[in-house]
Amino acid sequence: MAAGAPRVFVSHLAGVPVFDPNGDQVGRVRDLVAMMRVGGRPPRLLGLVVEVVSRRRIFLPMTRVTGVESGQVITTGVVNMRRFEQRPTERLVLGELLDRRVRLVEDGEEVTVLDVAIAQLPARRDWEIDKVFVRKGKGGALRRKGETLTVEWSAVTGFSLEEHGQGAENLIAAYERLRPADLANALHHLTPKRRAEVASALDDDRLADVLEELPEDDSIEILGKLKEERAADVLEAMDPDDAADLLSELPEADKERLLTLMRPDDATNVRRLLSYEERTAGGLMTTEPIVLRPDATVADALARVRQQDLSPALAAQVYVCRPPDETPTGKYLGTVHFQRLLREPPGTLVSSVVESDLPPLSPDTALPAVTSYLAAYNMVAAPVVDEGGALLGAVTVDDVLDHLLPDDWRETEFNPGGVVGGR
Length: 423
Known about the structure:
Layout: E1 8-9, E2 17-19, E3 25-35, E4 44-52, E5 57-61, E6 65-69, E7 72-75, E8 90-92, H1 93-97, E9 101-104, E10 110-120, E11 127-136, E12 148-152, E13 156-157, H2 169-175, H3 180-188, H4 192-201, H5 204-211, H6 216-225, H7 228-237, H8 240-247, H9 252-261, H10 264-274, H11 281-284, E14 291-292, H12 298-305, E15 317-321, E16 332-337, H13 338-343, H14 367-376, E17 381-385, E18 391-396, H15 397-404
Parallel strand pairs: 2-7, 14-15
Antiparallel strand pairs: 1-10, 2-3, 3-4, 3-8, 4-5, 4-11, 6-7, 9-10, 9-13, 10-11, 11-12, 15-16, 17-18
């Protein structure tokens, strides 16, 4: 749902079909999954419980939902078919929030929750439950008498985590606003038992971000305490180079078992990275840079650069290649930097502004040479190309820094000097 579009009451989503981009039906919505938050803040909507043809119920993250329209939900087409399992910090909206007895903050009157509304935050892909439709008077949702009204989420009480004390819930909610690196630092200083509880309650994408920032020993410990299917899901959500780094530290049998459980495309990317020496361009690179064909326009390139999930380093430039678009690509033609894109008319072909004078890195380029390359040419990312001229991936400056800093740098409390106010 685009920013500014009408909100959706969840009762209208129950049973609606879910389609992929080609118009094929994936399944039907059976519930919505939300994460409660402290301080009266509206719950964050994590995703949908979708019943597929086999009657299996799976989890569809909201990050994979591209449209909530009249009578249907549209997805990106990428659906994980593993069975949905509810986690401690999650609430089923239809199953657990509706028909609940809560109180109005203004006067303390007890009311029954008939429905709740979801809305997408402006300029973001996050969704929240922002409105509550309630009926005054005693009795459940089937009772017809009593005034009904729609109020803000903050106008009712009875949902909050403070009233329930369930495992790691409050801790997760308190950590919600932390950046992945700061959350990783907080987890590092927890006991192993508490760390495992928090990790198990995080959603896959959030846990993947945190594992990428944790010291290696902590990441291996957490991964080892997850169910193997969940561990594979989290590895899929990680950047391929980080997943490869983590898997390379596991015993061969464990590594192979997890790779087998991963989606074939994700596993293929990770296996390719594992085939290179760790401290080389091939071992450092990500296999998911922005790749465009020569006939793409500047407008196309800018649309790709705007994608929220991209790191700043990957969004700094696009790589122009002949088909296929997935790495390893067809012939690598050159790079277009973000600043150049901003200076060109939207309809300009990227092939007409491509920079091809800088030689790309080969996958066996050693780390010191990679570092020198980035420093010499003032770049935050560099293409990695094989002998046949195919783009294999891109090395970003953050991955290089990971290997240049001391081994224990992640275990040190980050406290930049000269920062006023601590924020």
